[in-house]
Amino acid sequence: MRRNQVAVVGAAETTELGVIPNMSQIQLHADAALNAIADAGLKLSDIDGFATAVETPQQMAHYLGITPTWVDGTSVGGCSFMLHVRHAAAAIEAGLCKTVLITHAESGKSMIGKQPRFTAPDSLNGQFESPFGVYGPPSMFPIPVLRFMKTHGITHEQLAMVAVVQREWAAKNPRATMKDPITVADVLNSRMIAYPFRLLQCCLVTDGGGALILTSADRAKDFPQKPVYILGTGESVETPMVSQMKTFDSSRAFKVAGPLAFKEAGIAHKDVDHLMIYDAFAHLPLYGLGDLGFMPHEETGKFIADGNTRPGGKLPLNTNGGGLSYMHSGMYGMYALQESVRQMRGIAPAQVPNAKISVCHGVGGMFAASGTIIFTNEK
Amino acid sequence: MAEPARAKPKPTPETQHFWDGTKAGELRLQRCDACANVYFPPRPFCPSCTSRKVSIFKATGKGKLYSYVINHRPAAPGFTPPYAIAIVELDEGPRMMSNIIDCPQTPEALELDMPLEVAFEALDDKITLPLFRPAKG
Known about the structure:
The complex is a heterodimer of chains A (379) and B (137). Chain A is built from 14 helices and eleven strands. With 379 residues, chain A is of the alpha/beta class. Chain A has a nine-stranded mixed beta sheet, with helices on both faces. In chain A, β5 and β6 form a beta hairpin. In chain A, α7 (156-170) packs across α12 (297-305). The longest helix of chain A is centred in the N-terminal third of the chain and has 16 residues, at 25-40. Chain A is globular, with a radius of gyration of 19 Å. By secondary structure, chain B is mainly beta. The longest helix of chain B is centred in the first third of the chain and has 8 residues, at 16-23. Chain B is built from one helix and eight strands; from the N terminus they run αββββββββ. In chain B, the strands form two sheets. Chain B has a five-stranded antiparallel beta sheet. Chain B has a three-stranded antiparallel beta sheet with strand order 2-1-3. Chain B has one helix at residues 16-23, and strands at residues 28-32, 38-39, 54-58, 62-71, 83-90, 95-98, 115-122, 128-134. The A-B interface holds A 119-122, 124, 126-136, 138-140, 142-147, 150, 191-197, 241, 243-244, 248 and B 6-12, 15, 40-41, 66-79, 82-83, 85-87, 95-99, 107, 112, 123, 129.
């Protein structure tokens, strides 16, 4: 895909984040969509392309009252929205539509109008994983981490520091769910969830949503907000079964999507001013730093423990507080994208001074899928 | 009221040989006749070279502990926490999820790379699960 041909011209989260028991899941989608439309100075009737995940495009398009000529229902977990951005940019460039709305929302905490997840007993997951006691992401996502730690010499204290540093970012963010400072001891003494991970190394469970509006770079300059350009993109999938990953030393989906985006953007790692790595659990930033090529995996734990990703550090990472401290409704990728857009607009609560390039890396399922978007505010 | 039961697999045509095997006390894998790739989970073609000429064979049932979590909460129906969810790397190459029996469910007892051997546990008269225990000797 060509660089900087498409831009984000509207971006917003739901009016509230956290516990929102008075809104159904589709209403949360609509709240985010209307906020993004207002942000872009548009009407819903201006939208001719629509993408969403979990809820179907037909469900949400009808609820919102829009008539799209291009839709994308790619639903590969929490990074679905990175894939939507990539697909939307291609569709706009190909002339299939002009103005794309992407929505996410999840009543992850209150479970209002949210369909429960179900693993069919005759699916491969149902036959070869469910019988052995996996029960939701906390019992599945951390399964690779002990092998990763042994191979790369990562310590429990370093993995605790991921949560400590992200709480430092969250403290700067009025909308973050958890803002009180924590220590490595707090993390390592918090309730055990699935060894080796404890409560403070697992993402929050909240309600909320977000929406993005994309259009061509040529049109973007006529919108009220500072355009945020799509510089590079990548995507891939590996397997829905965490047990069948090619290796636990890295993520194949990360290693395909991330470098693809860097190549397309034509940038080096030293050019990155701001980084988001979807942190459903504390090991994901370490996988991401290694798999995206910032450094060998062996150095990732020390890099974070030494403070390089904290406020004032040389590689600001997960500056909204991340899924560990900001919010996590179940599919966090949209919130990572929102933070990248805020940083590129220069309006983030914990703004990185003069940030010009932001890398936003997402995961779907338990390392099942991945999407990477590289943004810039300079054309 | 009956206690909630462990999730039970429902075989499909291409996995039936695996579940017939566990019921007969055998861990059955597939090997590609064209490229000799051994793979899991079952499917009637080789995911490495796409050949449809594949054979079913009885694996040794030996392997080692590749990774695991010890799940505390939430617990799956039929499980009493804390319990380990393990990934076993079979001597033939493929990995599979399982549980470790005859072993304390603790980080001290569960050492990565420890040798394991298959043990079969019948859930009912149709389904037997392949579990693993620390290898003897």
